Amino acid sequence: MPEAKRVMLLDSASLYFRAFYGVPESVTAPDGMPVNAVRGFTDMVSTLITRYRPTDFVACLDYDWRPAFRVDLVPSYKAHRVMTETADGEPDVEETPDLLAPQVPVLLEVLKAAGLCSVGAAGFEADDVIATLAHRHDQRGELVDVVSGDRDLIDLTTERVRVLYTGKGIAKIVEFTPDEVRQQYGVPAEHYADFAILRGDPSDGLPGVAGIGVKTAAIVVSEFGPIEQIVAAAESGDKAMSASVRAKVLAARDYLAVAPAVVRGRQDVPVPELDTAIPAAPADLDMLAALAEQFGIGSATGRLTTALEKLASLR
């Protein structure tokens, strides 16, 4: 029988930022260019492929880390991450560290030479690309592993979609299944985003509902479901909702009306059908060898080649 399809969707920026800060800047190419993020990211990919044995792989990219459609709804969305202003006083893009920016094209070239798919979509975050692809493959009855250090993606978890949370590093991945989400947060996985909306998320500039903390948010979501139903219960005077919670929800109606569209990943991103299959060996050995020599990353590309070959031998 053919092997069951298991698609690994990588939140690429989450991993290469972690690699950049986790591997010393003293790791350099022969010309002195830092390649710590390239080496660390490549090693992470090798480890993930070896440990989880996916049949397919997509490195999902941020083409817009702060999309206008989200900022228009919640102006504070990621506002604290805006590092500069343009000459007109408008917010400029988030600054990638000077030593990281030149490394991103290199690590994408490594993926290309290895034959591993990468994709982004204009006007969307990697989260949206991941949500679209996770939903697509889930609907087809295929297994999905979402790899990210961003808790927002936990709400993608289903019986077929597992979130591999890397917040504490690749060596300490937390595997979120629906049972694990409920055990850790006290809410159904499909309503994790609603839980996050209520409690707020300073890392994304989401204020939350004043006076509602983690415990209360979990109780309210477990009892009433998604934000739309929580607001409806408050507006109708549902006796199952305490007067205190009702008052807090009603006071935050404007925020709650727009927050779901900001927090929930889009599942309608125009991502084309992709060749996502992991090859039995690097797609372009000459290109990979050239990258290894130019950037002094032969050990990392060697481990990636070994991971691909080992995976092929197990099929």
UniProtKB/TrEMBL annotation:
| UniProt xrefs under Gene3D superfamilies | 5' to 3' exonuclease, C-terminal subdomain, 5'-nuclease
CDD domains recorded = H3TH_53EXO (cd09898), PIN_53EXO (cd09859)
Enumerate the spans annotated as 5'-3' exonuclease domain: 5-279
Keywords in alphabetical order: DNA-binding, Exonuclease, Hydrolase, Nuclease
**Domain of life of the source:** Bacteria
What are the TM regions of this chain, as residue ranges?
none
- MF (Gene Ontology): exonuclease activity
Write down the Pfam families for this protein, in alphabetical order. Answer: 5_3_exonuc, 5_3_exonuc_N
Q: Outline what the protein does.
A: 5'-3' exonuclease acting preferentially on double-stranded DNA.
List the protein's name: 5'-3' exonuclease
Organism listed in the record? Jatrophihabitans lederbergiae
